[in-house]
Amino acid sequence: MNTDPNILLEKLDQFIRKYYKNQLMKGGLYVVAATLSAFIIASLLEYLGHFNPTTRSVLFFSFALFSAGIFGYYIVRPLLKLYRMGSYLSYQDAAVLVGKHFPEVNDRLLNTLQLHSVGESNPLLIAAIEQKTKELKPVPFQ
Q1: What is the model's pTM?
Q2: Are residues 115 and 129 in contact, defined by beta-carbon separation less than 8 angstroms?
């Protein structure tokens, strides 16, 4: 029977990739909405204020800096984490997220990961990991 504990790790990898892709999609919507709103506000301020060139420059560079900051926070950061650069979601953190979402999984996934990290030298430990993997196998983490 195929109850390799690495199946759980593969499922968690898929979950982590999907999690960061969802973060990118949500971030893309935030970036578009925030940039569009800031552009409309800056345009209305200029239209109603008839500012001098110095004030226009400050307004323009504030808009550009705001847009770049929003883009960096909501797009670049999740993109780097998606490709595992910098700090990213660990298996244990992902197991906690999955456990919160699926009540039938609860803490069993986290416990299985902790058992797997202890080591595979004890036959009883291996049997426990395989049993928990069998129980968690039908649950889709995505």
Answers
A1: 0.77
A2: yes
